[in-house]
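To illustrate the input format used throughout this study, we show a single complete record. The first block contains the structure-token representation of the backbone; no residue identities are included at this stage. The design step must infer an amino acid for every position from geometry alone.
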């Protein structure tokens, strides 16, 4: 008999996307738009797992989680949250949530977490990252994206340049058959390769004319400046 999953999220677009994806994988899926409706559903039907958004109007995800555990303490609950609500994710893990999915939600990532919780064979596989380890990783990657956006806001002519360099770097690393962890480090480094330009004068970076030798030397210093900044990470 297929596992039955309840999705609680006030964002109907997210719920419908996940429902379509998970149904293709032979899960039975029901969706509701609020914590209150989710609790009513749980009192009437049996589910294998709940996916619950953290930020919702009226009854938020933390309160919903508490009440779900009051109905069925052993029912697995996976929280869904964006980078800005990591403190709430930590609270939910402390209050009994089994794991979390970062928004924007990836169906593939959701399926991996669901299988890890519901399939004993997958749960026993070595190298499964803990929710806390993944939370730290998501936070670190979110911080890298914020830094990259700051660099590109200051220098509009390099918009999306970091992402393009990172994409090409990943392809090269994959062609070299480097380990997955090494590829991720290379990807992050590529995103930050222009970080040192925050230490270069805006007048030089935005100059429409050809740079003189002194100005060009200042631009080339961005690699040294960036290296010093990255060493602190």
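Output of the design step:
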């Amino acid at each position: 008999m297929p596992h039955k999953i309840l999705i609680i999220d006030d964002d109907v677009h997210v719920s419908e996307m996940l429902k379509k994806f998970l149904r293709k994988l032979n899960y039975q899926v029901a969706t509701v738009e609020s914590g209150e409706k989710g609790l009513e559903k749980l009192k009437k039907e049996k589910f294998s797992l709940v996916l619950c958004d953290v930020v919702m109007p009226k009854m938020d995800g933390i309160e919903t989680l508490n009440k779900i555990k009051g109905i069925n303490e052993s029912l697995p609950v996976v929280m869904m949250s964006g980078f800005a609500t990591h403190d709430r994710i930590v609270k939910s893990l402390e209050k009994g949530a089994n794991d979390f999915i970062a928004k924007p939600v990836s169906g593939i990532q959701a399926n991996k977490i669901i299988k890890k919780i519901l399939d004993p064979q997958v749960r026993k596989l070595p190298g499964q990252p803990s929710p806390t380890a993944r939370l730290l990783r998501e936070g670190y990657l979110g911080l890298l994206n914020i830094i990259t956006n700051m660099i590109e806001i200051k220098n509009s002519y390099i918009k999306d340049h970091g992402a393009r360099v990172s994409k090409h770097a990943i392809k090269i690393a994959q062609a070299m058959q480097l380990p997955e962890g090494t590829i991720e480090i290379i990807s992050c480094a590529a995103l930050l390769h222009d970080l040192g330009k925050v230490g270069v004068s805006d007048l030089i970076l935005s100059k429409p004319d050809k740079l003189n030798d002194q100005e060009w030397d200042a631009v080339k210093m961005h690699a040294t400046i960036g290296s010093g900044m990255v060493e602190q990470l």
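Structural context for interpreting the output: The beta strands are 4-8, 28-32, 49-53, 77-81, 99-102. The chain has two domains: 4-128, 132-230.
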